[in-house]
């Protein structure tokens, strides 16, 4: 070894934390994390980043000389991770919360520690085999036959995008792509419109179909619009139905939509990012009867399968549809081509280098078992039904959509306030509740009105949490009404 080589080795070694430092950091943070977890219910659902912490972050330099690992990590714990919404909190009912299991977290830690390169079977055969096994298991839950397959991706947006590329590839040609039209409802998640733009559709090629009184895509309107478009020379090629809309948890009429797609030779994608998990519930899986007819399904692990973020699947009825769109082995990956029909995630999706996202879900299923996960999903459905029961007994509350899957929406509607005042009232109720830190209750809009929305999927949410949240919301409502000297009836 030359003197120069020796220096280089020393410099690299100096920059690497010692074994002891790494163990110390891990012990300390695991301890803190578990303590926090045990005390979650007593903690606020969110810690807003005030001006002082924002200034502190703005003033943080990126140092030219490294600092001790322990110092840098403790600063991250206090200045970064401590802020924002705690999506694992049992009273966080906003968006679709992320009540990730500690087992998923551990699986995530393991997978990133080993930095598994899960693009190709040849490089990571065991991790890729596990992914294939899980994908098959979830395809069975959908009701797909032997030709089905899929891959893990980062989230619902990417899962749908992965499927839509396949749909476009199968049905349209580069020459007629400008005529292709896709159909969604006005309750479809915004990510789907982004995905449609990414595959090259302009707004003029996207039809937003109205919904019925239950927020389900109106099939008559769908059929009529498709026929009109065909008559005008367009090529209807894709319907995106939702199994569990973000606003209300509604499920589009899958069987009727399938019949339309078959009739017009169109691809049916089901966005099950949130709702597909109901397929693991013995008690409620029937609500998705008909889903097996879809050409593709997106299904998030990081929503109702209790995974840490970056966990989603795209499943297709026919593996060939993904391969036809994504198989592209260049000269520098020829060594990885297998003579056997191995499952290569990179041949079926957008990403090449990718983490082994399936392993944390694998670990979760191994440790908790699928029955427990199914029962936990049932718990969410039943807690939401309970919330509806409690809300129905609050005089000024109007249920704007009943408990569906794990979502319910409602609004405080004192009769002597105008609709605009009621909108303002509900917006303020949400803001005041968030400011207390007691519960994460956000708003959405339905039929042009501001409503409050609860998504209840956390296994640790109990009836007492729901009751206390509704009591506090009602109290906030009364205070607001009184402050504004607006007389309302007894609550
Ligand atoms: C129905 C539905 N589809 C798609 C998405 C987007 O998923 P992701 O945020 O994982 O990309 C969401 C997110 O909440 C959703 O609720």
TrEMBL record:
Molecular function GO labels: aromatic-L-amino-acid decarboxylase activity; pyridoxal phosphate binding
InterPro entries: Aromatic_deC (IPR010977), PyrdxlP-dep_de-COase (IPR002129), PyrdxlP-dep_Trfase (IPR015424), PyrdxlP-dep_Trfase_major (IPR015421), PyrdxlP-dep_Trfase_small (IPR015422)
Gene3D superfamilies (alphabetical): 3.90.1150.170, Aspartate Aminotransferase, domain 1, Type I PLP-dependent aspartate aminotransferase-like (Major domain)
Keyword Lyase part of the UniProt annotation: yes
A Pfam family matched in the record: Pyridoxal_deC
Highest taxon of the lineage: Bacteria
GO terms of biological process kind: amino acid metabolic process; carboxylic acid metabolic process
UniProt entry keywords in alphabetical sequence: Decarboxylase, Lyase, Pyridoxal phosphate
Cofactor: pyridoxal 5'-phosphate
Regions crossing the membrane: none
Record-linked SUPFAM superfamilies: PLP-dependent transferases
Modified residues (N6-(pyridoxal phosphate)lysine): 303
Similarity annotation: Belongs to the group II decarboxylase family.
PANTHER family reported in the protein's UniProt record: GROUP II PYRIDOXAL-5-PHOSPHATE DECARBOXYLASE, MIP05841P
Name of the protein described by the UniProt record: Glutamate decarboxylase
